[in-house]
Amino acid sequence: MVSSEIERNPISALRTATVFLTRIPVGGNSETGHGPLASSVWMFPFVGALVGLLGGLIYYASQALGLPVAISAALGVCVLYVVTGGLHEDGLADVADGFGGGASRERKLAIMRDSRIGTYGVAAMVFSILLRILAIVSIADAASVAMALLAAGALSRAAIGPVMAALPSARPDGLSAAAGRPGGGQALLAIGIASVGAIVFLGFGAGIGVTVLALMTLCLVAALAKKQIGGQTGDVLGTTAQCVEIVVLLAISAR
Fold first, then answer.
1. pTM (predicted TM-score)
2. Which of 37, 45, 56, 195 has a CA 20 to 30 Å removed from the CA of 249?
3. Is the dihedral of CA 105, 171, 21, 254 positive or negative?
4. Which among 56, 42, 87, 239 has a CA at the least distance from the CA of 156?
5. Euclidean distance between CA atoms 75 and 166, whole angstroms
6. What pLDDT does 33 receive?
7. In the chain, domain spans
8. What pLDDT, in 10s, does the model give residues 86-101?
């Protein structure tokens, strides 16, 4: 069901978004506490920026201690993983296994639900981690890395909203089905907030550029999910966040 309402209490919306997107202990149940989630997607970019900030702070501290850039970058990405509990990486791995190894829609969904990780999933996780580390190493400057992680965090989590809004749940009993579907206006609001953040963190031209890339990436992931399984799941949402985060960091590293 599509929700046209927006959770107007920022504390409640932030708490709901934090429970869904991270493992930060703010109370609530990450498995069942998603009643108002569809109305809280406008807070996704704020939570994403917070995650990016934590990674940036660890990178900054590591550089201040004199650690090599590569090790500092690895520690920064490690923090991103720990804060989210590896939720998005796990989703990416499941999608890679399902889309890569399943012949039918039903088989793809069954593979994605399997807790075991396959060859495609391992490769996807390795590439995700390596690409982000290499992008950070290329950026190098501590302040610039922090700004990049803030922008990538905000845009990648905001990108989840449009996919939730555009695609129905591929499973009647999945996490995304329980979370509900936000209205298009809410999804656009999340993207708008993240875009403003990207402009603040990176400057006007770069901020607009990475926002366009984020939109293109989420559209590609949504189109692939629609073709492969006819909708979205929690794993697809995690994959969206991962792909957008990687693309944004790579784009910033190429400046």
1. 0.94
2. 37
3. positive
4. 239
5. 35
6. 43
7. 42-253
8. 999 999 999 999 999 8
